[in-house]
């Protein structure tokens, strides 16, 4: 499935669970853009 970069950044947290999801939010990874994430 091909996703645009913005769709990918929206879908990524949905693939995480429990501790990984907590880390994603607590480390402010949700606030960075796709170019900085890769």
Automatic annotation (TrEMBL):
It comes from the Eukaryota. This is Uncharacterized protein. It comes from Erysiphe neolycopersici.
